Amino acid sequence: MKDLIFSFKRSSLFQLKTELDVFLAHNTEEKVCDFKVKGSWFQRSCVIYAGESLNIVAQMHKKDTAQSIMFGKDNFLVTVYPNVDYAFIVALIVILDKINKRPKK
């Protein structure tokens, strides 16, 4: 797949908090992840790390405002550290949202 940018998989099958291992396209062996996403979707927050390190490359958390409380619209604060691709981080957050969204009845 020449158009593949990255892939991901859950760090383990059973998780109380979401944890994803992210592999860039060139990392075909997938032995060590290029990025790790750890989050609590209940708290609507996550931290994205560079590989298996403790180096944070981005963070996201829900920002409560009067508008979000009154109208039920979520606002988020996303911090992306220097030299990190904003679009890549947004893509990871959107995927995390889709994984954790419960279908509306």
TrEMBL record:
Entry's transmembrane regions: 76-96
Keyword Cytoplasm carried by entry: no
Pfam families for the chain: LOR
Family per record: Belongs to the LOR family.
PANTHER family (alphabetical): OS07G0230700 PROTEIN, PTHR31087
Record's protein name: Protein LURP-one-related
Family annotation (SUPFAM superfamilies): Tubby C-terminal domain-like (SSF54518)
Keyword Manganese set for record: no
InterPro entries per the UniProt record, alphabetical: LOR, LOR_sf, Tubby-like_C
Keyword line: Membrane, Transmembrane, Transmembrane helix
Tree of life domain: Eukaryota
Originating species: Arachis hypogaea (Peanut)
